[in-house]
Amino acid sequence: MECPFCLENNNCAIDKNSAVKNSQPCWCFAVNVPNEMLQLIPKEKSVSVCVCQKCIAQYHQDKGEFIRRFAIDS
């Protein structure tokens, strides 16, 4: 599954096409993705997406820059 922001593989363990499958839950179950970040995802992509760890870290490192970079003009 690809990250809706950087479009890179997010290493989702629950993605049916993932090579990361194992008996452990996905890493994303232990991470809180901020609602403000999720609101940047276009509605048509928001149904079944998984944000990658790199983008979550970038958001926390510089929230303002991340929002400017990925905000979609209406």
Give structural notes.
The structure is a single chain. Helix 2 (53-61) packs across helix 3 (63-70). The protein has helices spanning 35-38, 53-61, 63-70. The protein is an all-alpha fold. The longest helix is centred in the C-terminal third of the chain and has 9 residues, at 53-61. The termini are far apart. Helices cover 28% and strands 0% of the residues. The chain is built from three helices and no strands.
Summarize the main sheet: none
Low-confidence stretches: none
The overall strand count is 0
Q: Averaged pLDDT, please?
A: 81
The share of residues in extended strands comes to under 5%
Percent helix range: 25-40%
Write down the secondary-structure element order: HHH
Helix count equals 3
Can I get a quick summary?
The protein is mainly α. It contains 3 helices and no strands.
What key attributes describe this structure?
mainly alpha, 28% helix, globular
Layout of secondary structure:
Layout: H1 35-38, H2 53-61, H3 63-70
Helix pairs in contact: 2-3
